[in-house]
Specification:
The complex is a heterodimer of chains A (about 475) and B (about 450). Chain A contains nine helices and 25 strands. With about 475 residues, chain A is of the alpha+beta class. The model of chain A has no long low-confidence stretch (mean pLDDT about 95). Chain B has two domains: about 1-220, 2-Layer Sandwich (PmbA/TldD fold), CATH 3.30.2290; about 220-455, no CATH class. In chain B, helix 4 (about 125-135) packs parallel to helix 5. The chains are: A alpha+beta (about 475), B alpha+beta (about 450). The complex binds zinc ion (ZN).
Chain lengths: ~475, ~450
Amino acid sequence: MLKDLKQQIERLRAAGATYVDARWYPYEESNALTMWNGNLKDASSSRESGVGIRVLYKGAWGFSASSDVSNPTGLFDKAFDNARISAERVTFPIRLAEKDALQATFNSPTKIDPFVVSLSDKISFLKEMDEKLNQPGVLQRVGELIFMRKQIVFVDSEGSEIEKNIVEVFPGIMVMGVDEQGVSHQRSFSPGRIADTRGWETIDRGIFLENAERIVREMKEVLVADECPKEDRSVILLPGIMFLQTHETIGHALELDRILGYELAYAGGSFVTLDDFGKLRYGSPKLTARADATLTNTPGSFGYDDDGVPAQDNLLIDKGILVGAITGRQMVEEANARAKKQIFKGSSGANRATAFYRVPIERMTNINIDPGEDGTLDDIVKSTERGIILDGTKSWSIGSNREQFHFATDIGWLVEDGKIQQVVKNSTYKGDTLKFYNSLSAVGDKSTWQVEYVNNCGKGQPNQIMQLGHGVPVCRFDNVRIGE
Amino acid sequence: MKEKILQILADLRAYAIGKGIEATFFYHEEDSYLMRFANSAISLNTNEHLIRLEITAYEGRKRASYALITDLGKLEEMKQGIDIAGEMVKHAQPLNYDPTIPVYTETFVDEGGFDPALASLSNEERLAYFNRLAGNLETNDVKLGGIFSSGSNIVAAANTRSEHSIYIKTSDAQVTAVLSHAKLKWEVIAEQSAWQKSDLTPEALHDDLAFLLERYQNDAPQQIPLGRYDIVFGPAATGDLISFMNWIGFSGGALKRGFSCLKEEQVGQKVFSDKFTLLDEPARLETFPSKIDLMGIKRSTFPLIENGVFKGFTWYQDDADEFGAQPTGHTVMHKSLWLKPGDFPAATLRELIEQPRDNDILYIPYLHYMNLVNPSKGVVTASSRFGALLLKKDGSIVVPYNVRVTQSLFDIFGDKVAWMSKAETVNNTSSSYGARNPTSVILPTFIRVNDLEISHSNSSY
Ligand SMILES: [Zn+2]
């Protein structure tokens, strides 16, 4: 197969293509189990295999994919034909930033492959959680296990040959109840990074049982709580919401394809312009953010991206100043050319596709906020006069240029004069991105820093779902509108 | 092709019966083409032909499924899938209810929503369409973006209890064209949905874009004050709102799980404006309909809301099994939603603007990134995007920066509805996640709702 792919790549090069690559997935498997109120509603597995071909011709891309690999000539020709048509409408001829040709392998750090664990063992875990969550006041209880395993072989016309073997494990539990007004409230728990490996061994029953107890308790507190007030307060975001705030208003805002207008017809653009790099005060000096694809064991670490560029750790925001973006080989070249200066020194290795039948685009890796020097959560609460601690991702809605946002959380705890007071329900907050990050007044230390996983980030047309991570501390922002 | 697919399903059925495995088969085949435009260039031109087969095995109350992407020539691989599902189900845990396996009483084939001319559009035709809609509107600063997504879809089903099977084939196209200013950052949009080639009229999109462009090129945008506005929603905005209502309002399963904004005691009660009538209407080919559901229940007009009165919940078979309800023919990939039009005589934005007005009107064509703030109360939030206009009472027009609307669906579609237009638009609401599932909502082109709050107003794009 590999030989066939290489021959075809050479054939298209000889026919005038400037660059060709193939991503062959010998297999991609998933296994999902959902237990809902004691019923095993979903016990499903899937398997697919195939190859995706990308061809650059006269500055334009063509792509074609198929699960049928019996006719590679036809498949490569189709990708080439698609590129020929694209070449009829080119405004900035695509070029690719330089990279090294690599022969390499990446394996997710895994001790126990979740695909060799028996279905019975998986179901027994879900039953144990279900029993633990089955308490008075809980109307719905859900336990979920999602496993993925794939092999990707990447070859290109520049001599790269990279094999990746990736394993993903996404477990989670959720409870829901209804308050006296008939309004539903949820609490959930999905562990992020808890160890250096990410196989079945990371599904720690002890951690789950502890958190099952906690989410039931907190959900019941919300059911009898007062409404979140509508006013301005300091908001203290726990990692369980801070990761999504980071994802939506730093991560997506700094994808270079969005900045260059390649997502304007759908996902949207960015308020960031090329002039802003090195200058824009994105947040207060307490804000340092990075795209770190080298962190061991998260879905945002994958060894090599789908351009064949090695994973990297790059600063995005340095003490409040915008300095970097999430980039791939194509976009950095166009950005530098448009800016007429070198903003980006090569690709940051963040071009990824969700499946063999999708084309790679700029995707987040692990978009992290560095821990700060404002102590523990307790320390931050103590120094807060009038605030609210928020956790959980009930709802998120962001402006098309990521310039403003509205979030609803699962729970809020009011803080008065440095002390946690009562729980409130239906908590929300909103703001303008730059004003919000510039009001960042406290960043928790390493004790507050957690890596959370995202298993369903959507972007692009046709749409692509991607898995990634966010390492974030507890953060406090001042004068934020809540309760609207 | 149809015969081959039905034969494969028959072969799989025979294999499963031979192995003593009770199973259902769901077959999905898509031929998808997508030409994507950005910065006035074709940024991606892709196609994929994918066949997905999902096999669900049953053993009494136990159920497990196995899905694969496969090819018609790979019968052995499909049979292995049956073996895997048959093995999985042995280790599954029984449900506390009996899952239904349907018995199809006849083979149902529907190709009425398939237009071979649309399904076989060429790359050249897609590009020509975009070139025509863009006309002479692009400049060094004004860039064209968008998609031309088209293709065909086959959904087929069979099972070990039925000698018969189901086969539905549709064709579809979704066009989104956006003009955006590279420096000033405003953007305007025009869209089209098609089930047949003759629905594609690039001239109509060109006219819409040209009209909006004129406004945006001549008027500097402004931050509009917070407060209450009379709002006219365009079809994309209304389409999103109705899709969310469908998501959190009508499902009996969601009701039983506490996620519904409509409650059992509201059946037969007036919950929306008496101008509001929403049907599930599989007779409308524009909605890429299923005239039969996967349980073999024939589908006909199903009123959801009639003159504001809630008519009843829809049931997916598995929910009906779990909660002991009567299935309603809604075990489908999507409903065929049709919000019935009113009598207001504006069919285009130009006509809307020319109408005399008693108050300032905020026109919102599109709501971006809608999400559920409080599903139980039907509260959603989203931001305006793509060419909002503030039509002043005195006849002048202001171009506003985007605004945020956080409102309950009961307020938006309640007694504040002033009118709905007589003209209809088909709004294509397909998402391109996972398997192709063309979906659209038929809507009054414009709906005016008075006195809605704007809770956030941008000071730039
Ligand atoms: Zn995302």
